[in-house]
Write a structure and sequence with these properties.
This protein is of the alpha+beta class and 152 residues long. Helices cover 32% and strands 34% of the residues. Strand 1 and strand 2 form a beta hairpin.
């Protein structure tokens, strides 16, 4: 299976009415239907943000390094894939689907070791049907959606 780096962007609102920017991975149907990635991991970083609930430039830059380190570590052999990034209302959440939670945890610790202690929480759940991903994709049906292509 080939993992592309093509993404879509949608805009939605939090329960409090704040704007949330959603970046979702495109072209991953083969991974979704393979039945191999049955666990969902959500890594949430709480930040102070600006008046609109978006990260300041400094906060956004601070999140960039850990995000890239996690993506590279998890996707190198497709143990896990990053499927979604939610940003807004003082929170950024990275959503991964993985084959193995203990292995994910070990890689997470290794990938983040070079960074100072980060303000993150981690949540895991069985999601063999990819319900969270499907819900995220439905945002494109409910609002304007934009294709953003990464490096293949």
């Amino acid at each position: 299976m080939r993992l592309s780096d093509n993404w879509f962007t949608a805009i939605t609102e939090s329960e409090s009415g704040a704007t949330i920017i959603v970046c979702g991975r495109d072209e991953i149907d083969d991974f979704m239907t393979s039945g191999k990635l049955r666990e969902r991991v959500e890594i949430t970083w709480t930040y102070t943000g600006d008046g609109a609930g978006m990260p300041t430039e400094q906060e956004a830059q601070a999140m960039e390094g850990p995000q890239e380190a996690l993506k590279k570590a998890m996707e190198k052999d497709k143990l896990s894939i990053l499927t979604g990034i939610y940003t807004g209302d003082g929170v950024r959440t990275w959503v991964f689907y993985t084959r193995n939670i203990p292995a994910f945890g070990e890689r997470l610790n290794t990938a983040l070791a070079p960074f100072d202690l980060l303000p993150i929480t981690i949540y895991t759940e069985k999601d063999a049907d990819w319900n969270e991903y499907r819900e995220m994709c439905s945002l494109c049906k409910d609002s304007a959606c934009y294709d953003t292509h990464g490096d293949d």
